[in-house]
Amino acid sequence: MTDDRAGWLEVLKAPKVWIPAAAAVTVIAVSVGLIVTTTARRDDAVAAVGASSGPTPSASVTSQAGDPDVVVAAAESPTPSPSPSVSASADPTEDEDAFVPMGDDDLTMPVAEPCVPVPAAVTPVAHQEGVLPTATGATTTVVEPRPTQELSAFLDPAFSADGTTLAMEESGEGRSTVRLFDTATMDTVAALVSDDDAAFAWDPSGTRLAAARVVDDALRVEIVDPASGDASVLAELAFHEPQALAWSTDGSCLAVSSRSMTISNDDERRVWVHHISLIRVSDGEVVRLGRGSDPVFAPDGGLLFRAPDEAETVRLMRAVPGTYEVELVGKGDGLGATALLTLSGVDPSPDARHVAYLDRGTEGRSLRVAATDGSSDIEVASLDASRAMLVGWSPDGSTVLVKSFVGPMDVELLAIEVTSGAVTVVDVPLNTGEWIAGGSFTADGSGVLVAVNKWRKPGENNSSRMVLVTDAGARQVGGTQRGWAHSAPTWSPSGDVLVMSAGQILTRDLELDGSLVVTRR
After folding, report:
1. Beta strands in 218-292 (DSSP E)
2. Which stretches of sequence are listed as region Disordered (predicted)?
3. Is the pLDDT of residue 214 over 80?
4. For the chain, percent helix, then strand, then coil, each to nearest 5?
5. Are the C-beta atoms of residues 316 and 335 closer than 8 Å to each other?
6. 354-360 vs 365-371, strand pairing mode
């Protein structure tokens, strides 16, 4: 294992608030600290935004966080303990299992053991044929959730496995909120407000939600009950901000990628400044692993992620199950040292046996697919694109959807077959001033529902519409909505509910917060 990877598994056991120390060992900073587990009352941990987020025909919601009827209360933060002083041993052969001095009180704490998942296969959540706005009997309503901040827009909709709860990120004014909605009424169940970025992830069963947010200068990781909105604090990482969360396939471990609050605004969206920590769900014990972003657990318990190698080239890495020794999986050219998070994601297949990711290619970008057990990594297709972003897998895992950028606003959706490498352009007829925002596969994989945005003309507002593309051609489904789409259209597992977000409108004559366009069967 090289020096660059020697920082993995470098934190101590409970007590329980994780606070990085200033000392450094070789080239990897040794972060030592304490972890606090506590259970937060719902009225402390959940921002109660009220029941005002139900459907409204057209009225604008102008209430702001801080208004009397908008309570945005973060949970009380456990009082951090002073950072312990740890002297690094100069002896490189020191026993890693030895006790480490913890301060003037002569307490000793054993080196922490990382959370080790039990191998578990993933059974993808079954999806049924999805409702469309043009279907007989379907109804479409614009829902305007009461915002928790200015300039709100709603991102990354994700339903629970039973479809009863919808989780989203509300983003605005430089910070985020993890929002949970009752699918039947679209009332707010929980609003976990962050002082900075936020992240969330459903567990493999789709019944528990993990959320990461910043409260009182600490990254707080919580487990949220989707029915009640009750949140329990699992762990805190002092002076860190979240990038992504991932569950192990057996549901026993979480991986969180985060960055220090000292990172500049210019660098905080880049891969190289992020680190990954493991959290045991049963007791909140945290072990910091090392540099990396966008973690994805494999069914065998391994962990895949993007991280710089010795030459600072961003590559696909894998931490071996149990030992978490890091090995190189990506066989491509990697990405530059300053690679942006949005262009370097790792997207697992529905069964988590493979991941798709993008590297530099001979013509611009290369779509690669790797086995999560580390046994293979292949180039599926070379793309003539200046930039590209992953959109998602088809439900059967046969095809990957990629958003390709040829110019500043020249955007294409590409459906790429994993086995053959065949690239099909998702042909969306566009009007002047329109571009493709995103898309989602239909439940049977035979079509793609595309969100199309349009720049406003004088006297008009920004707008969006949905276009269904199949082998039979392309057709608009439903009417044009005000505001740009900020998410791909997303169906509930039963297909009975379709959600797309529409962004805020800010003009001289009109100010509207973000909304949700909800179609029901």
Report:
1. 218-224, 231-238, 240-247, 253-260, 275-280, 286-291
2. 74-97
3. yes
4. 0, 45, 55
5. no
6. antiparallel
For residue 372, pLDDT over 90 is answered with yes
What does the block give as tokens for 88? 């690094």
The amino acid that residue 11 corresponds to is V
- Exposed / middle / buried, residue 356 (Cβ in 10 Å: 0-12, 13-18, 19+): buried
* Cβ-based burial of 324 (10 A; exposed 0-12, middle 13-18, buried ≥19): buried
Cα separation of the two ends of the chain: 55
For every residue of 162-231, DSSP letters joined together read: TSSEEEEEEEETTEEEEEEEETTT--EEEEEE-SS-EEEEE-TTSS-EEEEEEETTEEEEEEE-TTT--E
Across 418-428, b (16+ Cβ under 10 Å) vs e yields beeeebeebeb
Digit-coded pLDDT (tens) for 36-94: 333 333 333 334 444 444 443 333 333 333 333 333 334 444 433 333 333 333 333 33
For residue 170, CA distances in Å to 157, 191, 330, 405, 503 come to 10, 9, 33, 26, 11
Task: Name which of 143, 161, 160 is nearest 152 in CA terms.
Answer: 143
**Nearest-angstrom CA–CA distance, 214 and 236:** 9
- Exposed/middle/buried for 440, CB within 10 Å: 0-12, 13-18, 19+? buried
Chain centroid offset of residue 253 CA: 16
